[in-house]
Amino acid sequence: MSAATLPAVLGGPPVVTAANDPAWPSAGALETAVLGEITDGGQWVGYDNHPARWRAVLEQVVADTTGYRYGVGQPNGTLGIASGLRAQLLARGERWARGRDQVLVADLTHASAHHGVLLGVAAQLGRAPRLVPVPARLDATMDEAVVAEYLAQHADRVLAVVPATMYGNFGAIDRIVALGREHDVIVHHDNALGGAARYDGERALTASISGQGGGKAAPSSEAGMTVTSDPHIAALLRADTDCGHGPGRLDPIPFADLETIAAGNQRLGEQSAGLWLVQWLRALHARLQARENRRLIGELVSGGGVLPPGVLWNPPTDAEYPPFFCLYLSCLDALEDELGLGPKDLRVALCAEGIWAEGGFTPTHQDPAWRHWADGLELPYEGSARVFDRALFVHTKFLRDPQFPGWLSEIFERVMAHKDALRGLGEKVPATTW
């Protein structure tokens, strides 16, 4: 083999360089113009008596895109979770919540989401719940079978279930919603990673989306949204974000003469809303390329390319417009058995080629700050641990680039040609911090 075909980690030229590295975030004159107009206009936030403009447009666009009727802007996705849970608790009342002290959360998620759960329950009930991390399926989403079994035994103690969109899949949201209805518990969908994606099954009463700028499919500086199709819940959500005041006459949410509730200042500002709106519109196009790239990569790893079949696995898409927060590939046992390579070997090879690749989110039961919540629970956390241990997690900026499937194919060709030299490098080369 010529030096040009060497993997970059062995000294060859990287496939992705500064010349062809996808820009992130993808921005241009539209963002500059919108932020300039908002800044020069002087109204940087909306109140109940001074309606927001850009936030109102954003709320309608996000709700329509995701299949809901109403959206309520939040400062971030964490508070979006808190607000969704609090609104549902408000609607159910204190009597229903008596004797219930548990919330089922995703074991495999960014653990910061759990802070939103604790805040939402504590704000309404005056007490924090006991979190129950639920193990993940192979597609990285909450295992609905574990939820069903747990609710069958403990539903009378459960306040809510909070399944999360993970990586490129929604998971069994419809099944979990049905379980919530059957056992009379709240379901809130943590859809933080689902910007510009749409779940096609039965939806949770409330869901939250993140616009955090580090890597979300539709980023802002920092922003969030809680969505619902119930006008009363929507009015409570607005009140929870606007110092207790419900929607006014010029609000996208139908006017409601609500009693003022105890709530703080949790509004989404106009600059963040305007930036997120333009990025959301860009994401409506990016989701088309991301969906096609995922199809092509699925063919590449299923035996239609340079890799033998059964080495890598990409979960089947579970929506017409699936999430594209990242590309998630699972390294199957055949990677070691047939090629003699481990997940860490592939990660360091991809990183050297200029592809942001890592293991993804640390499961809650392994996270030093959060793992105490899993103590004493006899739940099968091996599933979550396996996803994390064997994941190839690649940043969204690559998944939306039309060159990405070709880059992966070229990298896999290099890996196959030099697999013996790559064997064990994952234990020797330090992991890249992006």
TrEMBL record:
Regions crossing the membrane: none
Superkingdom to which the source organism belongs: Bacteria
The entry's keywords: Pyridoxal phosphate
Any single Pfam family the record assigns to this protein: DegT_DnrJ_EryC1
Protein family according to the UniProt entry: Belongs to the DegT/DnrJ/EryC1 family.
Name the UniProt record assigns to this protein: dTDP-4-amino-4,6-dideoxygalactose transaminase
Native organism: Pseudonocardia cypriaca
